[in-house]
Each structure stands twice: as structure tokens, then as C-alpha cells.
Specification:
By secondary structure, this protein is an alpha/beta fold. The protein is built from 15 helices and 15 strands. The structure holds 6-O-phosphono-beta-D-glucopyranose (BG6).
């Protein structure tokens, strides 16, 4: 007998730019995802200056959900989904981001999509900004470095809260807002905040400024969303990668603590409504000239989130350097060391199910808010047989091990958990590499890295397994009955 809530939201998660395609349909504008080329395992995607003819942009077509959502939703219904997490592409609603009037065709698309979901008993769970801000806001305003973008975002949020009142109750403001904490790579700064670091600019200062404006925009959206519909539940969305000390050495433990602070202060602001002391000290000592006003601090205090949505894929470990500076600077690429106690995926992601239970306890102890696991999953290369079967026990093993730990956190540790929506439950374009062949789905989509394929959908073995998990509300994680 499962002790998960009886209304537990078993679901699946995607993001608009990674599955919709239709990048120019219905008046949609160009987003940051539309100017990112395909990469490969170990090869970063390139960001081009606008859409350049002849380049390969995998998000332009993605898996063509824009035209196929009705038949896809029939598959989701067969799977038994109770919730479908996606995002609203900002560029469908405000193609450039700075217009004053929304684009009706874009609004209508999501009306139709949400109606179709609801008619099939599936609750939409919506992220407002998932790595797809209007590209025009990058070229004209420099992305989230500019305070005016707060107003544009608030207008967007207000428009969709109003339009979809009564249809959508679960919202999240910024997907993985804390990904950009790691400024050792500039990729996340672009996808999260539309920022390209110019010569002589300090990436870290830009990140703190952009993230400040985003947390202010998020807090305003929370307040407005509650005014428009008190039934709205509006959450943060944090990329949770627990950072462990590589050893019991006190210096390693201190370094892991500092790294956790640097990676999760975003959650402190969004959940507690205030900056942690260490960070204001750090920013002052670094001499960053940040635009943070008293009014902003008041907004943050009044716009705390209702729940914490988070992604969980892996954990990391760090080790103190012999000459570790007292004023630690977060530098993910340089800091992370191998954790010999866990395995890794083909993409080097450490597989650590216990880390999920740890993370849930960490969130609970620190913020005492309901949690929602809105991403979790295993990216792998799948083989499809001539009769369209995909035997993917590795995916089932990964998901089962994580759901087991999730259940321990609920049943033994008393964590209040709203739901679980595994990432990319239908194969889609990878955010990190732009690949199609890095697959997370329980539903196979016939398209490869070269963009070839029919786009037909097929049920993998893991489809039947997850279907049974949902049917038994998580009580049966072992049986998989694949029809002949
Ligand atoms: C999360 C993002 O970082 O991880 C998703 O919210 C992303 O957009 C997912 O797709 C998996 O990452 P990747 O790089 O394998 O697509």
C-alpha cells in the first residue's frame, strides 16, 4: 500500500522549445533556443547571431508537437498521466517580448492544448520561462541584465495567468533558475538569462544582477498570480544537484557547504523572501555594483513561493584545494571531482538515487514547503527493433531506483510531495546538446541526431512499466507486462 497522496500527480515533463517545433507558426517570434545549433555528446551547441541560413537548429521542428498534440495526448492518456508539465513559449504570446499587446494566435494555441489535456483528465503544470526567452530581448536589452525585462516578464505572466485562470493551477516561474550559478561556462547564462558576456565584462556580476531581477520578477508574478486566482499554486524551479564533500576531511565539508550555498541561494530568496547573509557580504567584498533596491527587497519578502519544484538527475562531489581561499568562489567545472562510489551515464552524469532522498530532506529541513519533483530521468541511446520495440531496462532501473528513494522520503521522512513528472517522457531535443539520440522517453520518437525520421511515436517497454506504476499509485515498481 502506497502512502503517496491519493491525488499524487504522476506525470511527465517537457518544455515548449524542446518538443513543439512550429517555430514560425501562429506568429511566434524567435527565442534563444531558436539560435542554438545542434551539438553532440561532448560537443557544445553554438549560439549564432540570429537564425543563420544553412545552420542546423534542432528546436525549429523538434518533435512537431505543435501539430501532433492531439494524438500525443491520446498516448499520454493511455499511459495514465495525471499531469503534464510543459512551458508556455514566451515568444508565442509576445513574439519580441516587449510588445504591449499579446499575440492572439499564440494564446489560442495554449487554450486549445490545455482544453485537450483537461478533457483527457490531465492537469497542466506550467513553467513560465524555460530556456526560451525572446531573442529580441537579447539583442535589444542584453537579456536579464536590464531591469526593463522585469516589466516584460510580469506582463507576460499577468497575461497568461488571466487567460488560463481556472485551467492551470500549478505554475513555476523560472526553470532551473540556479543553473547559471555556475559561471565557469557561459552557456547557462544565455539559456537562463539571455546574456552574452562581452569583452571585459564580469560574468559573475552579470549573473548576480540578472538573477536578482529574475527573483524580483518571480516574486511579482507570485503576488499577481495569487491576486488573479487564489487557487494558483506558484512554485520555484530549482536544479537540485547535491554537492557532497569528497571525504570526511573538515576542509572538504566546508567547501561542499560553501558550494551548496553558492548554488542554492536562489531557493533561499524565493522561499524565505530574503538574501542569505553570506551572499550580501560576498557581493560587497567582490565590489559588484549591483542594482538591488530596498523596494526590491520588499517585493522579495512579499512574493515567496507556494512550493518547490525541482529537477534531480545526479549529485556531485567537491574537494578542497590545499590553498583553498577563505572567500570561496563557485567554479563548478574546476571544483568537481569524481565520486568513485556512484556510476555515470554515457554523458558523465553521476547516477545517485539516494541523492534524491537526501535532496528532499535537505529542502524539507531548510524551507518546510511542499515539494514537486518536476524532472528526473535517464538520457540514453536506445535501439529500436524492426517491429518498433525498444527494450530499455536501464531506463526502468534508473526510474525505479529513484522512485524507491522518493517513496522513502515521503513514507519514512514525512516529506510532503505533490507529484513526480519524469523528464522527457516523450523523446525530445536535448537542451544541453541539441541531440535527439540522447533519449529520456518512455515514448520513442522516430527522429535522430541528423534530423532524419518519420516522427512516428512508439511505446517503449518502459511505457508499460510506468503505466503500471501510475495505476498502482507507486505501489508496484517491479512488474512490466509488455503486450505481444
Ligand atoms: C534540465 C532542463 O536541465 O535537464 C531540461 O530543465 C533538460 O530542459 C534536462 O532537457 C535534461 O538535460 P539534457 O541536456 O540532457 O537535455
Amino acid at each position: 500500500m502506497s502512502k503517496l497522496r491519493s491525488d499524487f500527480l504522476w506525470g511527465g515533463a517537457v518544455a515548449a522549445h524542446q518538443l513543439e517545433g512550429g517555430w514560425q507558426e501562429g506568429g511566434k517570434g524567435v527565442s534563444v533556443a531558436d539560435v542554438m545549433t545542434a551539438g553532440a555528446n561532448g560537443v557544445e551547441r553554438r549560439i549564432t547571431a540570429g537564425v543563420v541560413p544553412g545552420e542546423n537548429y534542432p528546436n525549429h521542428e523538434a518533435i512537431d508537437f505543435y501539430h501532433r498534440y492531439k494524438s500525443d495526448i491520446q498516448l499520454f492518456k493511455e499511459l495514465g498521466l495525471k499531469a503534464f508539465r510543459t512551458s508556455i513559449a514566451w515568444t508565442r504570446i509576445f513574439p519580441n517580448g516587449d510588445e504591449t499587446t499579446p499575440n492572439e494566435a499564440g494564446l489560442q494555441f495554449y487554450d486549445d492544448l490545455f482544453d485537450e489535456l483537461l478533457a483527457n483528465g490531465i492537469e497542466p503544470v506550467i513553467t513560465l520561462s524555460h530556456f526560451e526567452m525572446p531573442y529580441h530581448l537579447v539583442t535589444e536589452y542584453g537579456g536579464w541584465r536590464d531591469r526593463r525585462v522585469v516589466d516584460f516578464f510580469v506582463r507576460f505572466a499577468t497575461t497568461v495567468f488571466t487567460r488560463y485562470k481556472g485551467k492551470v493551477h500549478y505554475w513555476m516561474t523560472f526553470n532551473e533558475i540556479n543553473n547559471q550559478a555556475n559561471t565557469s561556462g557561459t552557456f547557462a547564462l544565455f539559456t537562463n538569462s539571455g546574456i552574452q558576456v562581452g569583452p571585459g565584462e564580469n560574468a559573475e556580476a552579470l549573473m548576480y544582477q540578472a538573477a536578482h531581477y529574475e527573483t524580483v520578477a518571480s516574486a511579482l508574478a507570485v503576488q499577481i498570480g495569487h491576486q488573479i486566482d487564489p487557487a494558483n499554486q506558484i512554485g520555484a524551479m530549482i536544479a537540485m544537484v547535491p554537492i557532497y564533500p569528497a571525504s570526511p576531511k573538515p576542509e572538504d565539508i566546508m567547501k561542499a557547504e560553501r558550494a551548496m550555498q553558492a548554488r542554492y541561494w536562489f531557493a533561499d530568496v524565493q522561499c524565505n523572501g530574503r538574501y542569505p547573509a553570506w551572499l550580501r557580504q560576498y557581493q560587497a567584498d567582490a565590489g559588484f555594483d549591483l542594482d538591488i533596491t530596498l523596494e526590491d527587497l520588499n517585493v522579495l519578502a512579499c512574493g515567496t513561493v507556494d512550493y518547490i519544484g525541482f529537477s534531480y538527475y545526479m549529485s556531485m562531489a567537491v574537494q578542497a584545494a590545499p590553498d583553498e581561499p577563505a572567500n570561496y568562489k563557485y567554479h563548478e567545472a574546476g571544483d568537481v571531482v569524481e565520486n568513485p562510489t556512484v556510476e555515470r551515464s554515457e554523458w558523465g552524469w553521476q547516477i545517485d538515487p539516494v541523492g534524491l532522498r537526501y535532496a528532499m530532506n535537505w529542502f524539507k529541513d531548510r524551507y518546510d514547503l511542499p515539494l514537486f519533483i518536476v524532472e528526473n530521468g535517464f538520457g540514453a541511446i536506445d535501439d529500436i527493433t524492426p517491429d518498433h520495440r525498444v527494450h530499455d531496462p536501464y531506463r526502468v532501473d534508473y526510474l525505479r531506483a529513484h522512485i524507491e528513494q522518493m517513496k522513502l522520503a515521503v513514507e519514512v521522512d514525512g516529506v510532503d510531495l505533490i507529484g513526480y513528472t519524469p523528464w522527457g517522457f516523450i523523446d525530445l531535443v536535448s537542451a544541453g546538446t541539441g541531440q535527439m539520440d540522447k533519449r529520456y522517453g518512455v515514448i520513442y520518437v522516430d527522429k535522430n541526431d541528423a534530423g532524419e525520421g518519420t516522427l512516428d511515436r512508439y511505446k517503449k517497454d518502459s511505457f508499460y512499466w510506468y503505466q503500471n506504476v501510475i495505476k498502482t499509485n507507486g505501489a508496484d515498481l517491479d512488474n512490466v507486462v509488455v503486450p505481444d
